[in-house]
């Protein structure tokens, strides 16, 4: 009797715990065969778990047929930097982008927060044309890719947008070991201070962006607060399991 109760409370707690994870990017992309290469790389570079622990977030997904521009001949640490440029630290779905009709907005990416970006490399420039087309490129670069469609969205936590090609930038591979492991768990809110050879901060690259100010500010503050509350769940769930097991065993 008490053992079945223990089992019950275990499942109850497990359910509470898993349902507190609001999304899993690996599972989201698994539902779309077109993104399997992109998805595998997110897992290999451990960016998937970073994404799962951050919200609001927007993932710019690249389909298999154009992944060949990104992958062959590049070490994993370089691929990781380029992929982290495809992860925007704010929520942008099609509706929000369309509301920027005729404007440009500067987006802050995970690459920027890694402290490894040089110059404006960590920022994207999204331009919404009058006809509703959305073009995105590395800030300060004229090469742009187009938003094809929305893959999924869960307002206002995660949005996945399909873009027509990878956004490429020139990044150096690491000098030392071939691959520098990322931080184990979710980056803390103030993860702007990695120990890497951070280049001197460039003069604020976005200050000249018309109309980008408020949105930029939103991206910064909300990404900082978006991590809160996640990390306490495992410990809490674990404590509950232990407590209920002890309770029913005595
Ligand atoms: C979005 O995130 C918030 C904060 O973590 C959470 O309370 C809410 O349930 C999430 N929304 C959805 C639809 O999962
Ligand atoms: C997300 O889903 C993948 C594949 O199903 C799984 O391996 C991974 O552990 C999940 N991550 C989280 C945080 O639940
Ligand atoms: C963003 O792109 C638009 C259109 O290409 C351009 O007019 C604008 O100057 C760019 N902004 C920045 C900060 O690069």
UniProtKB/TrEMBL annotation:
Residues 1-22 form the signal peptide. Residues 175-189 have a biased composition (Pro residues). It comes from the Eukaryota. Its main location: membrane. InterPro entries: FAS1_dom_sf (IPR036378), FAS1_domain (IPR000782), Plant_FLA (IPR033254). It is found in: Cell membrane. Residues 22-168 form the FAS1 domain. Residues 172-226 are annotated as: Disordered. It is a lipid-anchor; GPI-anchor. GO terms for cellular component: plasma membrane; side of membrane. Keywords: Cell membrane, Glycoprotein, GPI-anchor, Lipoprotein, Membrane, Proteoglycan, Signal. Gene3D superfamilies: FAS1 domain. SUPFAM superfamilies: FAS1 domain. May be a cell surface adhesion protein. Belongs to the fasciclin-like AGP family. This is Fasciclin-like arabinogalactan protein 14. It comes from Cardamine amara subsp. amara. The lineage of its organism: Eukaryota, Viridiplantae, Streptophyta, Embryophyta, Tracheophyta.
